[in-house]
Amino acid sequence: MGDEAIQATNDDAASCKRFAIQQGYWRDPYLQFLVKAAERKAPEINRGYYVRTHGIKYLLEDFIKKTESNCQIISLGAGFDTLFWRLKDEGLLPKTYVELDFRAVTSRKCYYIKSRSQLLDPLMESCDGVKNKISIENAELHSPRYHIMTADLRDVADVESKLTEAGIDKNLPTVFISECVLVYMTVQKSSDLLKWIGDSFPTVLYINYEQVNMADRFGQVMQQNLRSRHCELHGVDACASMDTQKNRFLSVGWEGADAMDMMCVYHKLPPADIHRIERLEFLDELELLQQLFQHYCICWAYKDKANIGLSSIGFA
Ligand SMILES: C[S@@+](CC[C@H](N)C(=O)[O-])C[C@H]1O[C@@H](n2cnc3c(N)ncnc32)[C@H](O)[C@@H]1O
Hints:
Layout: H1 3-22, H2 43-66, E1 72-76, H3 83-89, E2 96-101, H4 103-115, H5 117-124, E3 135-137, E4 140-142, E5 146-150, H6 156-165, E6 174-179, H7 187-200, E7 203-211, H8 217-228, H9 242-250, E8 256-261, H10 262-267, H11 271-278, H12 286-293, E9 296-304
Parallel strand pairs: 1-2, 1-6, 2-5, 6-7
Antiparallel strand pairs: 3-4, 4-5, 7-9, 8-9
Helix pairs in contact: 1-2, 4-5
The protein binds S-adenosylmethionine.
């Protein structure tokens, strides 16, 4: 699979998110400025994106609150994610927020930000009323808190040099996020990256959303479908089970790891939320929803040198 096909997965994710937002699953006034209105998607896909977005944000907010925002967020393979703007609206911004992705993706994101005031203006607002300086060039964006940078995540030296350039302080509590990203690189490459993160950041949380149970029949069919669209999951061996997902961290020195499939995450939603989203669209194929949700998971892992309570992060 070429890098172009990997980059195209961002368009897929962004348009699915856009459609789910249009249907009222969650509020995001920003994604519409990065991706055109999307074609209809199946209700189980929309519900899946809701639980994914909600689940990641739930763990992330726990981390931000534990660190009282004295922390950093690094989003790997961020694509057209709008989390920075949404956290800003909620007063939950960290000290530094860095996104890394391929140049082909960051250049388009930078272009849209530069040309849409709805995206650009919030980046210029600072706490003291003086406008922030922003530089957008060479497919990268730099502002005091928010950086979008190009990097190939398979190249740890590249990742390290970009994070240094963004001013990342390895001693500050840091959370890494990836959503369907590691699966596109070989297990050796993702393992090198996770080892480097664990070795370099003493107080760190990693939140990974990705496929799981991929060795069963449903998983095999999923892989065949993707392959027919020239999309090879090189890292699928790490997605065989919840244990393989956790072990990819534990085997390279992380202190603790936990994982939950999306069916379980769904049942952890507040009952009022479940009631609301189940009324948005009629879903007659509950079995398909269940199968789909059992083939994705959120895995989170930590190292907690500063002892700030990272082991207690999880779904209550
Ligand atoms: C499925 S998309 C997800 C985008 C975003 N995280 C989301 O959930 O909406 C995967 C993203 O990871 C990026 N990606 C995958 N492998 C990468 C690599 N080796 N280096 C940089 N970016 C990568 C792709 O370009 C793409 O934007």
